[in-house]
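Subject: sequence -> structure tokens, single chain

Hey, anyone have a minute? Need the predicted structure for the following. Not urgent.
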Amino acid sequence: MIHFFPEKPIHNLEQIIVDQSGKTLYGEIAIYNMIFHSQIGQEKDFFIWHDLNFPIHSRSFNPYQKTECQIDFLIVCEDGILVVEVKGGSISWKNNTFY
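Reply:
Had a minute. Here:
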């Protein structure tokens, strides 16, 4: 069974999953829907946190001097932990740095 924290009404995600300016985050909604609808036939418990915020950021690697950290999806089950970062635009990799 899949357990979401916090659980969000699946029919209202476009109004709930938005950025700080209110723009709908369609990539995160697609992942949330995919996970939600994959419940059928699950034999294990999955615990999923969406939009998990931390009050601090890494001190060893923080080139933008961010003061907080956020994870799009943290998925935990008996087999391990998976962190999913969703990007809605272009992505690239250069000189060992993700853009």
